[in-house]
Fold:
Amino acid sequence: MNLLIFNVELVAVKKFVTILCGMFLVLATAHSQTYLSVDDALRMALEKNYDIIISKNNDLIDKTNNTLGNSGFLPTITLNGANNYGVSNINQEMSTTTGTKEIIQEGATNSSLTANISLNWTLFDGGKMFVTKHKLNEIQAQGELEVKAQVQQTISDVIGAYYNVLKQKQQLLSIREAIKYNTEQVKILETTNNNGLSPKNFLLQAKIDLNVYKQSAINQKNLLLESKRTLNHLLARDSEVEFDVADSIPNNFIPNKEELTKKLYSNNLDLLILEKAKNINELTVSELNATRYPKVSFNSAYNYSQVNNSAGNLLRNNSNGLVAGASVTMPIYQGGNINRQVKVAKLQYQSGIYTLDNAKLQLKKDLQNALDDYQTQKELLEVEIENDALSKENLVIAIERLRLGQSTSLEARQAQESFVESETRRINFNYNLKLAETRIKQLVAEF
Structure:
Protein backbone atom coordinates (compact mmCIF):
# COMPACT_ATOMS: atom_id res chain seq x y z
CA MET A 1 0.00 0.00 0.00
CA ASN A 2 2.81 2.39 0.91
CA LEU A 3 4.59 1.50 -2.33
CA LEU A 4 1.46 2.32 -4.33
CA ILE A 5 1.15 5.72 -2.62
CA PHE A 6 4.84 6.39 -3.31
CA ASN A 7 4.40 5.59 -7.02
CA VAL A 8 1.35 7.86 -7.25
CA GLU A 9 3.26 10.70 -5.63
CA LEU A 10 6.24 10.11 -7.91
CA VAL A 11 4.01 10.31 -11.00
CA ALA A 12 2.49 13.55 -9.68
CA VAL A 13 5.95 15.04 -9.13
CA LYS A 14 7.01 14.07 -12.65
CA LYS A 15 3.91 15.73 -14.10
CA PHE A 16 4.57 18.86 -12.08
CA VAL A 17 8.19 19.01 -13.25
CA THR A 18 7.07 18.46 -16.84
CA ILE A 19 4.53 21.28 -16.62
CA LEU A 20 7.09 23.56 -14.96
CA CYS A 21 9.68 22.85 -17.66
CA GLY A 22 7.06 23.53 -20.30
CA MET A 23 6.27 26.89 -18.73
CA PHE A 24 9.96 27.85 -18.65
CA LEU A 25 10.27 26.80 -22.30
CA VAL A 26 7.31 28.95 -23.28
CA LEU A 27 8.69 31.93 -21.34
CA ALA A 28 12.14 31.47 -22.86
CA THR A 29 10.66 31.27 -26.36
CA ALA A 30 8.54 34.35 -25.76
CA HIS A 31 11.60 36.23 -24.51
CA SER A 32 13.78 35.26 -27.46
CA GLN A 33 11.01 35.92 -30.00
CA THR A 34 10.22 39.58 -29.30
CA TYR A 35 7.21 40.67 -31.31
CA LEU A 36 7.90 43.44 -33.81
CA SER A 37 5.01 45.27 -35.43
CA VAL A 38 5.36 47.08 -38.74
CA ASP A 39 4.78 50.41 -36.95
CA ASP A 40 7.58 49.65 -34.49
CA ALA A 41 9.88 48.73 -37.39
CA LEU A 42 9.10 52.00 -39.18
CA ARG A 43 9.67 54.03 -36.02
CA MET A 44 13.06 52.39 -35.44
CA ALA A 45 14.09 52.92 -39.06
CA LEU A 46 13.16 56.61 -39.03
CA GLU A 47 15.26 57.09 -35.89
CA LYS A 48 18.32 54.97 -36.72
CA ASN A 49 18.51 54.15 -40.43
CA TYR A 50 21.94 55.21 -41.68
CA ASP A 51 20.74 56.32 -45.12
CA ILE A 52 18.33 58.77 -43.48
CA ILE A 53 21.03 60.04 -41.10
CA ILE A 54 23.46 60.60 -43.98
CA SER A 55 20.75 62.38 -45.99
CA LYS A 56 20.03 64.67 -43.02
CA ASN A 57 23.74 65.47 -42.71
CA ASN A 58 23.87 66.41 -46.40
CA ASP A 59 20.87 68.67 -45.84
CA LEU A 60 22.64 70.25 -42.86
CA ILE A 61 25.65 70.93 -45.10
CA ASP A 62 23.37 72.77 -47.57
CA LYS A 63 21.87 74.84 -44.73
CA THR A 64 25.34 75.65 -43.38
CA ASN A 65 26.46 76.86 -46.81
CA ASN A 66 23.39 79.08 -47.26
CA THR A 67 24.70 82.32 -45.72
CA LEU A 68 25.06 85.94 -46.77
CA GLY A 69 28.82 85.61 -46.46
CA ASN A 70 28.93 82.64 -48.84
CA SER A 71 26.79 84.62 -51.28
CA GLY A 72 29.27 87.53 -51.35
CA PHE A 73 27.19 90.14 -49.48
CA LEU A 74 29.49 90.58 -46.48
CA PRO A 75 32.99 92.14 -46.34
CA THR A 76 36.16 90.23 -45.61
CA ILE A 77 38.55 91.49 -42.93
CA THR A 78 42.14 90.25 -42.83
CA LEU A 79 44.82 90.73 -40.19
CA ASN A 80 48.48 90.27 -41.17
CA GLY A 81 51.60 90.63 -39.06
CA ALA A 82 55.33 89.87 -39.29
CA ASN A 83 58.38 90.30 -37.08
CA ASN A 84 61.79 89.68 -38.70
CA TYR A 85 65.32 89.74 -37.23
CA GLY A 86 68.57 89.51 -39.14
CA VAL A 87 72.37 89.89 -38.95
CA SER A 88 74.41 91.30 -41.87
CA ASN A 89 77.75 92.91 -42.80
CA ILE A 90 77.45 96.58 -43.79
CA ASN A 91 79.72 98.41 -46.25
CA GLN A 92 78.17 101.78 -47.17
CA GLU A 93 79.63 104.99 -48.68
CA MET A 94 77.57 108.20 -48.44
CA SER A 95 78.02 111.67 -49.89
CA THR A 96 78.08 114.54 -47.37
CA THR A 97 78.67 118.33 -47.57
CA THR A 98 82.24 117.82 -46.55
CA GLY A 99 82.98 114.86 -48.77
CA THR A 100 82.19 111.22 -48.38
CA LYS A 101 81.55 109.02 -45.39
CA GLU A 102 82.15 105.31 -45.28
CA ILE A 103 80.42 102.91 -42.86
CA ILE A 104 81.84 99.45 -42.42
CA GLN A 105 80.56 97.06 -39.77
CA GLU A 106 80.43 93.32 -39.48
CA GLY A 107 77.59 91.54 -37.61
CA ALA A 108 75.22 94.49 -37.73
CA THR A 109 71.71 93.58 -36.53
CA ASN A 110 68.40 94.66 -38.04
CA SER A 111 64.74 94.03 -37.12
CA SER A 112 61.41 94.90 -38.65
CA LEU A 113 57.85 94.75 -37.30
CA THR A 114 54.88 95.12 -39.63
CA ALA A 115 51.13 94.82 -38.98
CA ASN A 116 48.17 95.33 -41.28
CA ILE A 117 44.41 95.00 -40.96
CA SER A 118 42.47 95.34 -44.20
CA LEU A 119 38.83 95.32 -45.25
CA ASN A 120 37.46 94.42 -48.68
CA TRP A 121 33.76 94.79 -49.43
CA THR A 122 32.21 94.10 -52.82
CA LEU A 123 29.58 96.77 -53.48
CA PHE A 124 28.52 95.70 -56.96
CA ASP A 125 29.21 92.56 -58.97
CA GLY A 126 26.57 92.65 -61.66
CA GLY A 127 23.92 91.22 -59.30
CA LYS A 128 25.84 87.96 -58.91
CA MET A 129 25.58 87.96 -55.11
CA PHE A 130 21.75 88.11 -55.28
CA VAL A 131 21.62 85.26 -57.79
CA THR A 132 24.03 83.20 -55.70
CA LYS A 133 21.89 83.66 -52.57
CA HIS A 134 18.81 82.57 -54.51
CA LYS A 135 20.75 79.57 -55.80
CA LEU A 136 21.80 78.59 -52.27
CA ASN A 137 18.15 78.80 -51.20
CA GLU A 138 17.20 76.40 -53.99
CA ILE A 139 20.05 74.03 -53.09
CA GLN A 140 18.87 73.99 -49.49
CA ALA A 141 15.26 73.36 -50.56
CA GLN A 142 16.46 70.53 -52.81
CA GLY A 143 18.35 69.02 -49.86
CA GLU A 144 15.20 69.08 -47.73
CA LEU A 145 13.29 67.29 -50.50
CA GLU A 146 16.05 64.68 -50.76
CA VAL A 147 15.69 63.97 -47.03
CA LYS A 148 11.96 63.44 -47.49
CA ALA A 149 12.60 61.23 -50.51
CA GLN A 150 15.06 59.12 -48.51
CA VAL A 151 12.51 58.81 -45.72
CA GLN A 152 9.89 57.66 -48.25
CA GLN A 153 12.32 55.16 -49.77
CA THR A 154 13.27 53.81 -46.35
CA ILE A 155 9.61 53.40 -45.38
CA SER A 156 9.01 51.52 -48.63
CA ASP A 157 12.07 49.31 -48.05
CA VAL A 158 11.08 48.54 -44.46
CA ILE A 159 7.49 47.66 -45.39
CA GLY A 160 8.74 45.38 -48.16
CA ALA A 161 11.33 43.74 -45.88
CA TYR A 162 8.88 43.35 -42.98
CA TYR A 163 6.23 41.63 -45.04
CA ASN A 164 8.87 39.53 -46.76
CA VAL A 165 9.71 38.13 -43.31
CA LEU A 166 6.00 37.45 -42.83
CA LYS A 167 5.85 35.82 -46.26
CA GLN A 168 8.77 33.52 -45.49
CA LYS A 169 7.21 32.70 -42.11
CA GLN A 170 3.89 31.77 -43.75
CA GLN A 171 5.71 29.69 -46.34
CA LEU A 172 7.48 27.75 -43.56
CA LEU A 173 4.17 27.14 -41.77
CA SER A 174 2.70 25.90 -45.06
CA ILE A 175 5.56 23.43 -45.53
CA ARG A 176 5.18 22.22 -41.94
CA GLU A 177 1.49 21.64 -42.53
CA ALA A 178 2.36 19.64 -45.64
CA ILE A 179 4.82 17.60 -43.52
CA LYS A 180 2.01 16.88 -41.06
CA TYR A 181 -0.21 15.50 -43.82
CA ASN A 182 2.66 13.61 -45.38
CA THR A 183 3.54 12.05 -42.03
CA GLU A 184 -0.07 10.91 -41.69
CA GLN A 185 0.12 9.42 -45.16
CA VAL A 186 3.28 7.47 -44.25
CA LYS A 187 1.61 6.09 -41.11
CA ILE A 188 -1.39 4.92 -43.14
CA LEU A 189 0.80 3.27 -45.78
CA GLU A 190 2.93 1.58 -43.10
CA THR A 191 -0.23 0.05 -41.66
CA THR A 192 -1.64 -1.05 -45.02
CA ASN A 193 1.73 -2.38 -46.14
CA ASN A 194 2.16 -4.39 -42.94
CA ASN A 195 -1.33 -5.83 -43.52
CA GLY A 196 -0.49 -6.66 -47.12
CA LEU A 197 -3.04 -4.19 -48.49
CA SER A 198 -0.60 -1.93 -50.39
CA PRO A 199 2.74 -2.49 -52.13
CA LYS A 200 5.94 -1.36 -50.40
CA ASN A 201 6.89 1.03 -53.19
CA PHE A 202 3.90 3.22 -52.22
CA LEU A 203 5.32 3.46 -48.71
CA LEU A 204 8.84 4.15 -49.94
CA GLN A 205 7.63 6.93 -52.25
CA ALA A 206 5.68 8.52 -49.39
CA LYS A 207 8.81 8.47 -47.20
CA ILE A 208 10.84 10.02 -50.01
CA ASP A 209 8.24 12.77 -50.39
CA LEU A 210 8.33 13.36 -46.64
CA ASN A 211 12.12 13.77 -46.70
CA VAL A 212 11.85 16.21 -49.62
CA TYR A 213 9.40 18.34 -47.63
CA LYS A 214 11.74 18.22 -44.63
CA GLN A 215 14.54 19.49 -46.90
CA SER A 216 12.25 22.27 -48.11
CA ALA A 217 11.59 23.23 -44.49
CA ILE A 218 15.34 23.44 -43.81
CA ASN A 219 15.85 25.71 -46.84
CA GLN A 220 12.83 27.79 -45.87
CA LYS A 221 14.21 28.34 -42.35
CA ASN A 222 17.36 29.76 -43.92
CA LEU A 223 15.32 32.07 -46.17
CA LEU A 224 13.41 33.26 -43.12
CA LEU A 225 16.65 34.03 -41.28
CA GLU A 226 18.05 35.90 -44.28
CA SER A 227 14.88 38.01 -44.56
CA LYS A 228 15.13 38.88 -40.86
CA ARG A 229 18.75 39.94 -41.26
CA THR A 230 17.74 42.23 -44.14
CA LEU A 231 15.10 43.90 -41.98
CA ASN A 232 17.50 44.22 -39.04
CA HIS A 233 20.00 45.98 -41.31
CA LEU A 234 17.36 48.52 -42.35
CA LEU A 235 16.61 49.10 -38.66
CA ALA A 236 20.34 49.73 -38.02
CA ARG A 237 20.68 46.95 -35.46
CA ASP A 238 22.62 43.71 -35.16
CA SER A 239 21.63 41.26 -37.88
CA GLU A 240 21.23 38.41 -35.38
CA VAL A 241 18.58 40.14 -33.23
CA GLU A 242 15.71 37.65 -33.02
CA PHE A 243 12.08 38.74 -33.37
CA ASP A 244 8.68 37.61 -34.56
CA VAL A 245 6.31 39.43 -36.92
CA ALA A 246 2.57 39.54 -37.52
CA ASP A 247 0.67 36.51 -38.81
CA SER A 248 -1.17 38.16 -41.69
CA ILE A 249 -0.80 40.98 -44.22
CA PRO A 250 -3.51 43.65 -44.02
CA ASN A 251 -4.88 44.55 -47.43
CA ASN A 252 -7.61 47.17 -46.96
CA PHE A 253 -6.25 49.77 -49.39
CA ILE A 254 -8.75 51.13 -51.93
CA PRO A 255 -6.93 53.22 -54.57
CA ASN A 256 -8.70 56.13 -56.25
CA LYS A 257 -7.08 56.51 -59.67
CA GLU A 258 -8.38 60.04 -60.30
CA GLU A 259 -7.22 61.39 -56.92
CA LEU A 260 -3.85 59.65 -57.17
CA THR A 261 -3.23 61.08 -60.64
CA LYS A 262 -3.95 64.59 -59.36
CA LYS A 263 -1.46 64.17 -56.51
CA LEU A 264 1.25 62.60 -58.67
CA TYR A 265 2.84 65.72 -60.18
CA SER A 266 2.41 67.90 -57.08
CA ASN A 267 3.53 65.34 -54.49
CA ASN A 268 6.09 63.09 -56.13
CA LEU A 269 9.40 63.89 -54.44
CA ASP A 270 11.65 62.72 -57.27
CA LEU A 271 9.82 65.10 -59.59
CA LEU A 272 10.09 68.00 -57.13
CA ILE A 273 13.83 67.35 -56.78
CA LEU A 274 14.24 67.48 -60.56
CA GLU A 275 12.35 70.79 -60.66
CA LYS A 276 14.76 72.21 -58.10
CA ALA A 277 17.71 70.94 -60.14
CA LYS A 278 16.30 72.71 -63.20
CA ASN A 279 15.95 75.94 -61.23
CA ILE A 280 19.52 75.65 -59.97
CA ASN A 281 20.81 75.20 -63.53
CA GLU A 282 18.87 78.28 -64.63
CA LEU A 283 20.36 80.34 -61.78
CA THR A 284 23.84 79.10 -62.72
CA VAL A 285 23.34 80.67 -66.16
CA SER A 286 22.41 84.00 -64.55
CA GLU A 287 25.31 83.70 -62.13
CA LEU A 288 27.82 83.25 -64.95
CA ASN A 289 26.32 86.07 -67.02
CA ALA A 290 26.79 88.42 -64.05
CA THR A 291 30.56 87.96 -64.28
CA ARG A 292 30.50 90.00 -67.53
CA TYR A 293 29.77 93.19 -65.57
CA PRO A 294 32.32 95.32 -63.71
CA LYS A 295 32.99 94.60 -60.05
CA VAL A 296 33.18 97.55 -57.64
CA SER A 297 34.81 97.03 -54.25
CA PHE A 298 35.50 99.22 -51.26
CA ASN A 299 38.97 98.77 -49.72
CA SER A 300 40.30 100.06 -46.43
CA ALA A 301 43.38 99.24 -44.34
CA TYR A 302 45.36 100.33 -41.33
CA ASN A 303 49.14 99.79 -41.66
CA TYR A 304 51.90 99.87 -39.07
CA SER A 305 55.66 99.45 -39.72
CA GLN A 306 58.77 99.71 -37.54
CA VAL A 307 62.37 99.11 -38.78
CA ASN A 308 65.50 99.14 -36.54
CA ASN A 309 69.15 98.85 -37.68
CA SER A 310 72.23 98.81 -35.47
CA ALA A 311 74.35 100.42 -38.21
CA GLY A 312 73.91 102.11 -41.55
CA ASN A 313 72.46 105.31 -42.88
CA LEU A 314 68.93 104.43 -41.59
CA LEU A 315 68.87 103.44 -37.93
CA ARG A 316 65.10 103.57 -37.28
CA ASN A 317 61.94 104.15 -39.29
CA ASN A 318 58.35 104.09 -37.92
CA SER A 319 55.18 104.58 -39.96
CA ASN A 320 51.45 103.99 -39.44
CA GLY A 321 48.26 105.22 -40.99
CA LEU A 322 44.82 104.53 -42.43
CA VAL A 323 44.14 104.16 -46.14
CA ALA A 324 40.82 103.81 -47.94
CA GLY A 325 39.69 103.66 -51.51
CA ALA A 326 37.68 101.85 -54.14
CA SER A 327 38.58 99.51 -56.96
CA VAL A 328 36.84 98.62 -60.21
CA THR A 329 37.51 95.39 -62.07
CA MET A 330 36.16 94.98 -65.58
CA PRO A 331 36.64 91.73 -67.52
CA ILE A 332 37.66 92.56 -71.08
CA TYR A 333 38.86 89.28 -72.50
CA GLN A 334 39.32 85.93 -70.77
CA GLY A 335 40.00 83.63 -73.67
CA GLY A 336 36.28 83.07 -74.27
CA ASN A 337 35.90 81.24 -70.95
CA ILE A 338 32.78 83.15 -69.85
CA ASN A 339 31.01 82.39 -73.14
CA ARG A 340 32.05 78.76 -72.87
CA GLN A 341 30.82 78.44 -69.29
CA VAL A 342 27.50 80.13 -70.10
CA LYS A 343 27.00 77.85 -73.11
CA VAL A 344 27.64 74.74 -71.01
CA ALA A 345 25.29 75.99 -68.28
CA LYS A 346 22.52 76.63 -70.81
CA LEU A 347 22.91 73.12 -72.21
CA GLN A 348 22.68 71.70 -68.69
CA TYR A 349 19.55 73.77 -68.10
CA GLN A 350 17.95 72.44 -71.30
CA SER A 351 18.88 68.89 -70.32
CA GLY A 352 17.21 69.52 -66.96
CA ILE A 353 13.99 70.51 -68.74
CA TYR A 354 14.08 67.37 -70.91
CA THR A 355 14.82 65.22 -67.86
CA LEU A 356 11.87 66.74 -66.03
CA ASP A 357 9.48 66.21 -68.95
CA ASN A 358 10.67 62.63 -69.36
CA ALA A 359 10.24 62.00 -65.63
CA LYS A 360 6.62 63.17 -65.80
CA LEU A 361 5.87 60.69 -68.56
CA GLN A 362 7.71 57.93 -66.69
CA LEU A 363 5.86 58.65 -63.43
CA LYS A 364 2.47 58.54 -65.14
CA LYS A 365 3.40 55.17 -66.64
CA ASP A 366 4.72 53.90 -63.30
CA LEU A 367 1.52 54.90 -61.50
CA GLN A 368 -0.65 53.22 -64.12
CA ASN A 369 1.46 50.07 -63.95
CA ALA A 370 1.29 50.04 -60.15
CA LEU A 371 -2.50 50.49 -60.20
CA ASP A 372 -2.91 47.71 -62.77
CA ASP A 373 -0.56 45.46 -60.81
CA TYR A 374 -2.53 46.12 -57.64
CA GLN A 375 -5.83 45.23 -59.33
CA THR A 376 -4.30 42.13 -60.94
CA GLN A 377 -2.83 40.83 -57.68
CA LYS A 378 -6.10 41.54 -55.87
CA GLU A 379 -8.13 39.52 -58.38
CA LEU A 380 -5.60 36.69 -58.37
CA LEU A 381 -5.65 36.61 -54.56
CA GLU A 382 -9.45 36.45 -54.44
CA VAL A 383 -9.44 33.46 -56.77
CA GLU A 384 -6.58 31.76 -54.95
CA ILE A 385 -8.20 32.13 -51.52
CA GLU A 386 -11.11 30.05 -52.80
CA ASN A 387 -8.73 27.67 -54.55
CA ASP A 388 -6.70 27.28 -51.36
CA ALA A 389 -9.75 26.28 -49.36
CA LEU A 390 -10.75 23.76 -52.04
CA SER A 391 -7.28 22.22 -52.22
CA LYS A 392 -7.11 21.84 -48.44
CA GLU A 393 -10.52 20.17 -48.33
CA ASN A 394 -9.48 17.92 -51.20
CA LEU A 395 -6.30 16.92 -49.32
CA VAL A 396 -8.23 16.07 -46.14
CA ILE A 397 -10.63 13.91 -48.16
CA ALA A 398 -7.78 12.21 -50.02
CA ILE A 399 -6.01 11.31 -46.76
CA GLU A 400 -9.24 9.95 -45.29
CA ARG A 401 -9.98 7.93 -48.43
CA LEU A 402 -6.46 6.52 -48.25
CA ARG A 403 -7.05 5.53 -44.62
CA LEU A 404 -10.27 3.75 -45.60
CA GLY A 405 -8.59 2.04 -48.53
CA GLN A 406 -10.80 3.80 -51.08
CA SER A 407 -7.94 5.50 -52.99
CA THR A 408 -4.26 5.10 -53.82
CA SER A 409 -1.25 6.94 -52.44
CA LEU A 410 -0.88 8.62 -55.84
CA GLU A 411 -4.20 10.39 -55.36
CA ALA A 412 -3.14 11.59 -51.91
CA ARG A 413 0.23 12.72 -53.24
CA GLN A 414 -1.37 14.75 -56.03
CA ALA A 415 -3.78 16.34 -53.56
CA GLN A 416 -0.87 17.28 -51.30
CA GLU A 417 1.14 18.83 -54.13
CA SER A 418 -1.92 20.80 -55.23
CA PHE A 419 -2.38 22.08 -51.67
CA VAL A 420 1.26 23.18 -51.33
CA GLU A 421 1.23 24.93 -54.72
CA SER A 422 -2.01 26.74 -53.89
CA GLU A 423 -0.64 27.87 -50.52
CA THR A 424 2.50 29.20 -52.21
CA ARG A 425 0.48 31.13 -54.79
CA ARG A 426 -1.82 32.60 -52.14
CA ILE A 427 1.11 33.77 -50.02
CA ASN A 428 2.88 35.32 -53.04
CA PHE A 429 -0.26 37.07 -54.34
CA ASN A 430 -0.90 38.53 -50.89
CA TYR A 431 2.69 39.78 -50.63
CA ASN A 432 2.70 41.19 -54.18
CA LEU A 433 -0.53 43.02 -53.42
CA LYS A 434 1.12 44.76 -50.46
CA LEU A 435 4.15 45.67 -52.59
CA ALA A 436 1.88 47.22 -55.25
CA GLU A 437 0.09 49.23 -52.56
CA THR A 438 3.42 50.41 -51.16
CA ARG A 439 4.64 51.45 -54.62
CA ILE A 440 1.46 53.50 -55.25
CA LYS A 441 1.80 55.32 -51.93
CA GLN A 442 5.48 56.02 -52.55
CA LEU A 443 4.77 57.55 -55.97
CA VAL A 444 2.36 60.09 -54.49
CA ALA A 445 4.29 60.49 -51.18
CA GLU A 446 1.42 59.31 -49.01
CA PHE A 447 3.37 57.53 -46.27
